[in-house]
TrEMBL record:
SMART domains per UniProt: AlkA_N, ENDO3c, HTH_ARAC
Keyword Oxidoreductase: no
A GO CC annotation given for this chain: cytoplasm
Name recorded for this polypeptide: Probable bifunctional transcriptional activator/DNA repair enzyme AlkA
Cofactor needs: Zn(2+)
Entry's Gene Ontology BP terms: base-excision repair, AP site formation; DNA alkylation repair; methylation
SUPFAM superfamilies: Ada DNA repair protein, N-terminal domain (N-Ada 10), DNA-glycosylase, Homeodomain-like, TATA-box binding protein-like
Keywords: Activator, DNA damage, DNA repair, DNA-binding, Hydrolase, Metal-binding, Methyltransferase, Multifunctional enzyme, Transcription, Transcription regulation, Transferase, Zinc
InterPro entries: Ada-like_dom_sf, Ada_DNA_repair_Zn-bd, AlkA_N, AlkA_N_sf, Alkylbase_DNA_Glycosylase/TA, DNA_glycosylase, HhH-GPD_domain, HhH_base_excis_C
Gene Ontology molecular function: alkylated DNA binding; DNA-3-methyladenine glycosylase activity; DNA-7-methylguanine glycosylase activity; DNA-binding transcription factor activity; methyltransferase activity; sequence-specific DNA binding; zinc ion binding
């Protein structure tokens, strides 16, 4: 995108917010970089240059605009859509892997050498993994400075900086303000609760919240998730501790309230909440492709901007997909709640009814299969899955190779195409995952005049690629099901 100069200039001159996060505009005369929708008067075209990431702008010596705050723009949808090395690396960096394990840890997770990873990121993004992680630390620091009353020394280490000096130098370089000046400019708020942060998660409009939050609320596992006071709330297992996220839809952002046992988990918690709600999607590109099918177009026009509800824990979702095989949504919730009560890690929630973290694969692998109240074949499917996850033979995280993960899932007993594609859609984040055998999809297809047999529907859906997972959301929306409606 940033290489198409004419396209970028037009986007900046029209202040088109759809391109925020796709590329960044650096102004040669002021040495400031902005998002395309910056409200200031656009610079002359000859004074603009374009970069694919905030890190590349910073590395080239530009500082962030104080008006449009380009470091807070939505993430590039490229990293969710693509499955190549660069996309997998970017998802891992967003999940804080470089801060916790360094560049060698990032390369090891990807199965490449450190040199290969650095070369690929530099070639495409103009910045290596350390620079990308540094830009992310700067944004985390800014959030903590502006939304908490923590001392600066605590913020420095919570944001991932190795020293207070590095924290001060980076903040000054990136934002042209010292940390204390940033705090002085921030809106005043009342005294906060220790470990609790309130922030706004941006997204590209349009966003249709009903199916997104309706699905999460309707399938919520008691003790782990709930809908309360207009917000979806759930527990989070994080690298340094645990947390609780409360997410509520607003017209131009998602209101996010995070309660963290360790503030070093802030970056990871934000990344997982964004991934859960598919906030880095490009709804305009998705809807334009789906509107090209005349039978699908009325669904898109009726409620544009549908997202794919994903997950904050890929292993958890895979387990829940197995529990939901051939049973109702209510029965799947009951099965999952039993596992949570018996094997989940308890936690306190002073603000609501959340009681546990969902049990991890290691805990579930230690469960006596005879205690599981389910048919023997599904019991075998579940125990085989959790053993593979616990042993590290099956990877479903943000760095997973989607094709390899699909193949491994299909090789497990009890895993058919429907289960594999649901996991691909919700856990692996594949925007092109498709469910032609799903009863709701087939019923909706028939009502619209689309082919309803799996083979014929798959052939018709070739024109919807690479956004077939979003087409599934539109097809499900034709069904009178509680997952399609925002709870009261």
């Amino acid at each position: 995108m940033h290489l198409d100069r004419e396209h970028c200039v037009r986007a900046v001159q029209s202040k088109d917010a759809r391109f925020d996060g796709w590329f960044f505009t650096a102004v040669l005369t002021t040495r400031i970089y902005c998002r395309p929708s910056c409200p200031v008067v656009p610079p002359k075209a000859q004074n603009m240059t374009f970069y694919p990431s905030a890190a590349a702008c910073q590395q080239a010596g530009f500082r962030a605009c104080k008006r449009c705050r380009p470091d807070t723009s939505p993430g590039s949808p490229e990293w969710n859509r693509r499955a190549d090395l660069v996309a997998r690396a970017m998802r891992l960096i967003a999940d804080g892997v470089v801060d916790r394990e360094g560049v060698p840890g990032l390369a090891a997770r990807l199965g490449y050498s450190t040199r290969q990873v650095e070369r690929q990121l530099l070639a495409e993004l103009g910045a290596g993994p350390l620079a990308l992680a540094r830009a992310q630390r700067a944004q985390t620091a800014r959030l903590l400075v502006e939304t908490s009353t923590l001392p600066m020394a605590e913020i420095a280490f919570a944001a991932g900086f190795a020293s207070i000096r590095a924290f001060n130098d980076t903040v000054r370089e990136v934002f042209a303000l010292s940390p204390s000046e940033l705090r002085a400019r921030a809106p005043r708020s009342g005294p906060g609760t220790p470990g609790v942060l309130t922030l706004r998660l941006p997204f590209r409009a349009p966003l249709h919240p009903s199916n997104l939050f309706g699905h999460l609320a309707a399938t919520a596992v008691p003790g782990v998730e709930e809908w309360r006071d207009g917000a979806y709330r759930r527990t989070l297992r994080l690298p340094y501790g645990h947390g609780i996220a409360a997410l509520a839809p607003r017209p131009d952002h998602i209101a996010c309230r995070l309660t963290l046992s360790d503030l070093r988990d802030l970056t990871v918690a934000i990344s997982r909440c964004r991934r859960l709600l598919d906030l880095d999607a490009d709804p305009v590109a998705v809807d334009e492709r789906l509107r090209a099918d005349p039978l699908l177009a009325p669904l898109v026009d009726r409620a544009p901007g549908r997202r794919v509800p994903r997950t904050v824990d890929e292993a958890e979702f895979a387990v829940r997909a197995v529990l939901g095989q051939q049973v109702s949504t209510a029965a799947a919730r009951t099965h999952a709640a039993r596992l949570v009560t018996a094997h989940g890690k308890p936690l306190d929630d002073p603000e609501g009814g959340l009681t546990h973290l969902f049990p991890d694969p290691q805990a579930l692998a230690a469960v006596d299969p005879e205690t599981l109240a389910m048919p023997r074949t599904r019991r075998t499917t579940l125990t085989t899955l959790v053993r593979q996850l616990a042993d590290g033979d099956l990877h479903l995280g943000v760095a997973a190779d989607r094709a390899e993960a699909r193949a491994r899932l299909l090789a497990l007993p009890g895993f058919g195409p429907w289960t594999v594609d649901v996991i691909a859609m919700r856990a692996l984040g594949d925007p092109d995952a498709f469910l032609p055998t799903d009863l709701g999809v087939r019923r909706a297809a028939k009502d619209l005049g689309l082919p309803s047999t799996p083979a014929a529907l798959t052939a018709r859906a070739a024109g919807w690629r690479p956004w077939r997972a979003y087409a599934v959301q539109y097809l499900w929306a034709t069904d009178d099901h509680p997952i399609n409606f925002l709870p009261a």
